[in-house]
Design goal:
It is a single chain. With about 200 residues, the chain is α/β, with parallel strands linked by helices. Helix content is about 30%, strand content about 25%. It has a six-stranded mixed beta sheet with strand order 2-1-3-4-5-6. Strand 1, helix 1 and strand 2 form a beta-alpha-beta unit. The longest helix is centred in the last third of the chain and has 14 residues. The termini are close together.
């Protein structure tokens, strides 16, 4: 079933990842980025609230298309679930992935007695069918693992992938084949469930 879906994001990397996921799961989708110029302020206190804020902002500008919005983050139980909602700006509003990783490792090095601590990636996906949709599709995905505490030589990569080791693996998500992430990531799980729910209607 062919569908056009607008992704409520300005992040080209995230759009490319959704395109890769659609291809991996053999979904016949045309995915485009939001035409909204200014990103809405993510003032929610939960992943669902932030995803809904982005979806509602985009659906007003897109006639006759579904809108998919996603909010995700890395959660470390020993840090009370941080970075969580603030994963993308954990080290500050202007922080990049490297800054965030170094900030996280600095916090963990003060507390951890081991080289890695339990953590998980969490994703929440919302699909709106129209601006008046009162029952949006909402699906979540989780990928459990651990994060490396010790500084790494190469921490260039997307998000916290360079220090995240999925359960059952010995390499970081950054080092594993892209097909592994397409199959097992938190975003992949939430995305597939959301699209399946939409196509069953």
């Amino acid at each position: 079933m062919y569908m056009k879906i607008t992704i409520a994001t300005h992040n080209q990397h995230k759009r490319d990842e959704f395109i890769a996921l659609a291809s991996y799961h053999k979904l016949d989708l045309a995915l485009s980025m939001t035409p909204v110029v200014d990103e809405p302020c993510e003032t929610g206190t939960t992943f669902i609230e932030n995803a809904l804020i982005k979806a509602k902002d985009t659906i007003k500008a897109v006639a006759g298309q579904y809108v998919l919005a996603e909010d995700s983050g890395l959660c470390v139980p020993s840090l009370g679930g941080r970075p969580g909602l603030y994963s993308a700006r954990f080290a500050g509003e202007a922080a990049n992935s490297r800054d965030n990783i170094l900030h996280l490792q600095a916090l963990l090095s003060d507390e951890a007695k081991t080289q890695a601590v339990p953590a998980y990636y969490y994703a929440m996906i919302v699909i709106l069918r129209s601006p008046t949709d009162q029952q949006p599709i909402i699906q979540e995905g989780v990928m459990n693992g651990k994060v490396l505490v010790e500084p790494q030589e190469d921490i260039d990569g997307f998000g916290y992938d360079p220090i995240f080791i999925p359960d059952g693996e010995h390499k970081t998500l950054n080092q594993l084949p892209k097909q592994f992430k397409n199959a097992h990531s938190h975003r992949s799980k939430a995305f597939l469930k959301a699209i399946q729910a939409l196509t069953k209607e």
